[in-house]
Design a protein that fits this description.
The protein is α/β, with parallel strands linked by helices. About 40% of the residues lie in helices and about 25% in strands.
Length: about 120
């Protein structure tokens, strides 16, 4: 099984993720702060499970290291910034998002199932 979890470290990576508007591929972007206890708990409730059982790519964006990329996420997807925040993306658009205590692998799977139905 391929590794579905990776980091976004450059704006070019974000643009590549969002560019393919014809793709049927769903992806998640998980925005989090490494200094926030809520973000830390969300990370632990999402990433380890996704590494084992994830169904689509999950891109992790560290807000403290890459604030400008986070701003681009908000601008390009027309979403209000929150942290932690999990965004479901398809065809260059944000289909759904959750934040704070709702960020976990179970919610991610529910968001994905709903989008595919």
């Amino acid at each position: 099984m391929p590794n579905l979890v990776s980091s976004i470290n450059k704006e070019e990576q974000l643009n590549a993720i969002l560019r393919d508007e014809n793709s049927e591929q769903y992806v998640f972007i998980f925005k989090h702060s490494t200094r926030c206890i809520v973000s830390s708990k969300a990370y632990k409730a999402l990433v380890p499970d996704w590494e084992k059982e994830g169904q689509v790519p999950l891109y992790i964006l560290d807000l403290l290291s890459h604030r400008s990329i986070s701003n681009e996420v908000s601008r390009q997807l027309n979403v209000v910034h929150e942290s932690p925040q999990l965004l479901l993306i398809n065809k260059g658009k944000c289909l759904n998002s959750v934040s704070h205590w709702r960020v976990n692998s179970e919610t991610a799977l529910e968001m994905l199932a709903q989008a595919k139905s």
